[in-house]
Amino acid sequence: MIEELGGIRVFVSDSRLGDDRDAVQLIATAHYEHQAEWVALTAEGLGEEFFELRTGRAGAIAQKFVDYRMGLAVVGDISDKLAESKPLRDWVRESNRGRSVWIVEELSVLAERLGA
């Protein structure tokens, strides 16, 4: 579904991404079918492995969004995962400082950031 958040078209999806190839397909759908500039995915849809940085899955998926100049927002409460992993806390903090990949608790936070 398309949402207008902070003046930006965002493709909001609960798709499950298995790997970076799925990310490329989702980016194509968001861009060509919906003219979106950002994709918002639920934390649940990304699965546990995404948040286990040693698997490389988060990096590979995030890199595809950067490569294709499509913003990625991971939406959901991941506080339990952050409490268990310093590398994940560091990655989330650095991602949220950038302009391509953000991890936010809810869509309203994404709307605020996009509108700023």
Mind telling me the CATH class? Alpha Beta
**Strand segment count:** 5
Gyration radius from CA atoms, angstroms: 13 Å
Cα distance spanning the termini: 23 Å
- Give me the side-by-side strand order of the main sheet: 1-2-3-4-5
Mean pLDDT: 95
Major sheet: size, sense and barrel closure? 5 strands, mixed
As a percent range, the share of strand residues is 15-25%
CATH architectural group: 2-Layer Sandwich
Q: How many domain modules?
A: 1
Described by the principal axes of the CA atoms, the overall outline is: globular
Q: Helical proportion?
A: 40-55%
CATH topology: Transcription Regulator spoIIAA
Low-confidence regions: none
How many DSSP H or I helices? 6
How do the SSEs run, as a string of H and E? Answer: EEHEHHEHHEH
Give the helix/strand class. Answer: alpha/beta
Please explain how this structure is put together:
This protein is α/β, with parallel strands linked by helices. The protein has a single domain (2-111), classed as Transcription Regulator spoIIAA, CATH 3.30.750. Helices cover 52% and strands 21% of the residues. It has 6 helices and 5 strands, in the order ββαβααβααβα. The chain has helices spanning 20-33, 43-50, 57-67, 79-84, 86-97, 107-115; strands at 2-5, 8-13, 38-42, 71-75, 101-104. It has a 5-stranded mixed β-sheet. Helix 1 (20-33) packs parallel to helix 3. The longest helix is centred in the N-terminal third of the chain and has 14 residues, at 20-33. The radius of gyration is 13 Å and the shape is globular. The chain starts with a strand and ends with a helix. The model has no long low-confidence stretch (mean pLDDT 95).
